[in-house]
Amino acid sequence: MAKRIDVGHITLNVDEKGDGPPFIFIPGLVGVMNSWDYQREIFSDRYRCISFDHRGAGDSDRPGPDGYSTQHIADDVIALMDTLGIEKAHALGTSTGGAILQNLAIDHPDRLRCCIFSNTWTKADEYIRRVQIARKQIALNEGKEAYVLVSSLFTNGCNQFRYNLDKVMELEKRSLETIAEPEVLAARIDMTLNHDRLNEITKIKNPSLVVGTRDDATVPYYFSEDLHEAIEGSELVIVEEGGHYSYRRHPEEWAGIVGPFLAKWEDKI
């Protein structure tokens, strides 16, 4: 059961499932731990699966608009690991969570084992800027509910609306119940546009798997190719269909990509 944990400088809403080596699941911009429910269910038979609501999302604390950056949330992850007594962990970040994981892998490589980067980017280009600015304008001009509903179009994609509508509505429900004020939503979008570790990504030396989706309408798959090229020795998988939430659209198939990668490295790091 999820519980709020004081990690020293902020209180985060955290949930754990399973036993074994620690495995941290970092949500994307939606910010709520529920986005990882299907993967945590699969991996909890082998790992201690930990996820959390971002600052400014779900039931975690909500600082003012100046309190948001991918670096802030990376610092939250380290503080959470310290509080839980975790020295090192596998970490998986999707979208904004993948940007947060870049910070962790560059600044705290000794705290990580394997890194899995899903549907994330290196530095926002014109495409991502237009997507995110549109979402920000909707939040500020049309309100919180409109922001959640329109964001679902970008992140789920048409096939999830047609074939997995229950999953779409499930995540939307938690988002709508816990959504922050538009000013906080805008600040969280700004942190995605301001994230830039592009010139430092070559410093990442942890075993890394990069996963993209060819029909992702939020973060184009070519960013996964760029990230793979920059991280020496990394592995790349491009999923043909699944949208931005491929790990929810096809959970078993997606876990079938990540599981063997972790198993290969489990006794080596």
Describe the structure.
This protein is α/β, with parallel strands linked by helices and 269 residues long. It has a single domain (3-265), classed as Rossmann fold (3-Layer(aba) Sandwich), CATH 3.40.50. 47% of the residues lie in helices and 17% in strands. The chain is built from 10 helices and 8 strands. Strands 1-2-4-3-5-6-7-8 form an 8-stranded mixed β-sheet, with helices on both faces. Helix 3 links the parallel strand 5 and strand 6 (112-118). Helix 2 (70-84) crosses helix 3 and helix 5 packs antiparallel against helix 6. The longest helix is centred in the middle third of the chain and has 20 residues, at 144-163. The two termini are 30 Å apart. The mean pLDDT is 97.
State Rg.
17 Å
> Number of helical runs?
10
Oligomer: single chain
Strand content: 15-25%
Total number of domains: 1
CATH fold annotation: Rossmann fold
Order of helices and strands: EEEHEHEHEHHHHEHEHH
Global structural class:
alpha/beta
Number of strands: 8
Strand order of the largest sheet: 1-2-4-3-5-6-7-8
CATH superfamily: Alpha/Beta hydrolase fold, catalytic domain
Give the overall form. Answer: globular
CATH architecture: 3-Layer(aba) Sandwich
First-residue to last-residue Cα separation: 30 Å
How much is the average pLDDT? 97
**Helix content, binned percent:** 40-55%
